[in-house]
Write a structure and sequence with these properties.
heterodimer; A: 178 residues; Alpha-Beta Plaits; 2 domains; four-stranded antiparallel β-sheet; B: 462 residues; mainly alpha; Formate dehydrogenase/DMSO reductase fold; 71% helix
């Protein structure tokens, strides 16, 4: 039996959500959904796991904090301690209050940029790549559900989609990558 | 879908479909630029070029061409730096703080406010780079080992904190702004017909397709970046204020500075957002998106922050008297009654007295009046920074160093140049970039659109 890819187009979020729930309750998995804006409740409805990107940001932030601490300890306390305005640099903890601003800025810098880079690479959003949406209307006002299934299930799924309000159903051989 | 109380006023007027929102946002980009746009751009570019000329003259000759002198060694440069960086703060406040507070009205204004932030920080950076005197050696500000031995930069100094704060602020704001733009660029790409614009927006939209997984990550990134930018924006102006507050100069050495500077920054930033948006909504016919309610909300923030600034001014006066330190007392007496009394009077009138008129609903919902007030506030906030810097430095501890400060042609030229640069960039932004975060707007049109709200109301009545 050959595999087919079904593209179902919706013109609003409610029928899309309803349809996703119907399909899932019938044990049909949804490969992806393309929408012009984030549809709330969709992740749970189609089973998208929660992203780890915030945890990555936390780790990047800790890295930034450690790097800043190491840098300031090395430059101000270890390598060339100077007595500035009667405030000698004997030990890291003595200078600590003066080091807080840069520790903070460096934490934010690494967390923000690390997370942004992770986001762009994980989604493979890099200049020069082809648009990832199979139908250009999905960035304007249409919502597209992508279902990969066996040929024998097709008519069943298509009738479910139609019943829940899909306005258009196509088959396609568009190649996806997540 | 999220339901919203019916007594909340709609944020999107008229009956807007998703497609219509795309049309409205893309119109200035796909349409022909108007004559006014070209005229404004020409004017802004002339100012910008004049500024570049003055800047080149300063670099070629040295900062002796400025009015700064031995006593008043910080003057227009730092005044303008603090003014510009303060203006930038409203952008981050709107996009980050209002996102954390789930304020939907931010969605119509955050994009242009963030653009304003980025351009304003660029203007501010010009003064920082120049005021060092030898800008080609500005890499000395970074923690690099130098050729004389490993003498490092001074991490105890607020001036260095500033280098880190401003560069972090600029780069993080840029990333935040760009990430938000990606889905909107993709929308423009998918409807572009001309090959050049197709290519340009394909490049800018980096292949965005709006898949559910990508949206989920996108939302997480926006939320975390907002969470990071919120303390960042407060830290930046706090650190700017520490450039003054950690010195021993009377009038500067006060603990009130960080919160007072932050409130002033938000105050002037919102004024600048109003100046820009009141013109933009008319020129690009965005009246249905940037409504009177948005203007009113911003004016309310102006009253709040203006009042905080007012309380700070009065606290400074009270504490200088109460401290019993005669140097402190003289610094403030000199500000109010000394040779620069007119700057102090302008500051007090523009920042403390004038925003209070916004207590009247008639005035805070009047566009023409708000426009005038937004300019008044920005003039006032420029004078605030001038008052903090120049009158303080022209009368310090040793009377023999007392000195008047007069700006030169070059000082004025560079400042005008930064205003020209700011408007040049902003005009280009409004022409080629989506000025409203349309993807976000589409997600609230059902809960906050006028048509949908009225329908919901009817539904309830029956």
């Amino acid at each position: 039996m050959s595999n087919v890819t079904i593209h179902a187009i919706f013109d609003d979020e409610e029928p899309l959500l309803a349809s996703a729930k119907t399909l899932r309750s019938n044990g049909i998995s949804i490969k992806d959904v393309f929408s012009p804006f984030p549809v709330h409740g969709l992740d749970a409805a189609i089973g998208v796991p929660r992203t780890w990107i915030a945890i990555c940001a936390f780790i990047y932030g800790l890295t930034g904090l450690s790097l800043a601490t190491l840098m300031m300890w090395y430059m101000m306390v270890h390598d060339w301690p100077t007595n500035i305005g009667g405030k000698p640099s004997f030990a890291y903890y003595m200078n600590m209050p003066a080091f807080i601003p840069i520790s903070f800025e460096s934490t934010v810098f690494c967390a923000a940029h690390g997370m942004a880079i992770t986001f762009y690479l994980r989604c493979w959003l890099v200049p020069g790549t082809k648009p990832k949406n199979p139908d250009p209307r999905t960035t304007d006002d249409k919502f597209m559900m992508v279902i990969e299934t066996k040929e024998e299930n097709r008519s069943n799924i298509e009738s479910m989609l139609k019943k829940d309000g899909a306005i258009e159903i196509n088959n396609s051989d568009f190649k996806y990558r997540n | 879908m999220h339901a919203e109380s019916e007594i909340r006023e709609p944020l999107i007027l008229g009956n807007k479909t998703y497609h219509q929102i795309s049309e409205d946002i893309v119109r200035p980009i796909e349409g022909k630029a108007t004559k006014q746009w070209y005229m404004l751009l020409t004017l802004a570019t002339i100012c910008f070029l004049w500024g570049i000329g003055c800047l080149a003259y300063t670099i070629g000759t040295g900062i002796g061409v400025w009015g700064s002198n031995n006593g008043v060694d910080w003057a227009w440069d730092i005044t303008n730096f603090v003014w510009w960086i303060g203006i930038g703060h409203a952008g981050t406040l709107i996009s980050a703080v209002l996102l954390l507070f789930r304020q939907k009205w931010r969605m119509a204004i955050n994009r242009s406010a963030e653009a304003m932030t980025i351009f304003a920080v660029m203007c501010a950076a010009i003064f920082v780079v120049l005021h060092t005197g030898r800008p080609w050696l500005d890499y000395w500000l970074f923690p690099l080992p130098n050729q004389f031995g490993s003498l490092w930069v001074n991490f105890n100094s607020p001036l260095l904190w500033d280098v880190f704060a401003v560069s972090t602020y600029f780069s993080v704001s840029l990333v935040f702004w760009y990430t938000g733009l990606v889905p909107d660029f993709a929308m423009i790409r998918d409807r572009a017909v001309k090959p050049f614009s197709k290519k340009l927006y394909s490049l800018l939209s980096v292949g965005w397709g709006g898949s559910a997984r990508h949206w989920s990550r996108f939302e997480e990134v926006s939320l975390v970046l907002a969470g990071l930018s919120t303390p960042l924006v407060f830290s930046v102006h706090s650190i700017v204020s520490m450039d003054f507050a950690t010195s021993v100069v009377p009038g500067w050495h006060t603990t009130i500075f960080p919160p007072y500077f932050v409130a002033g920054a938000v105050f002037s930033g919102f004024a600048m957002v109003l100046t820009l948006l009141l013109i933009m909504r008319k020129v690009y016919r965005l009246e249905n998106y940037i409504t009177v309610k948005h203007i009113e909300y911003m004016n309310i923030i102006i009253i709040v922050t203006g009042s905080i600034v007012g309380v700070a001014y009065l606290t400074e006066l009270f504490i200088s008297w109460y401290s019993g330190v005669e140097y402190e007392q003289y610094a403030f007496l000199n500000r109010a009654t000394g040779p620069y009394w007119w700057a102090y009077a302008a500051m007090m009138t523009c920042n403390v007295v004038s925003p209070q008129v916004f207590w009247f609903k008639k005035l805070r919902t009047n566009f023409a009046f708000t426009f005038v007030m937004s300019i008044v506030v920005n003039i006032g906030m420029w004078f605030e920074r001038f008052v903090i810097i120049v009158p303080t430095l022209c009368r310090t501890f040793i009377p023999s160093t007392w000195n008047m400060y007069h700006p030169t042609f070059i000082d004025v030229g560079i400042f005008t140049g930064t205003i020209g640069m700011f408007f040049t960039f902003f005009l280009l932004f409004t022409r080629y970039f989506p000025v409203i975060a349309q993807a976000e707007l589409k997600s609230i049109v059902k809960s906050s659109g006028q048509e949908h709200k009225e329908k919901a109301k009817h539904h309830h009545a029956h």
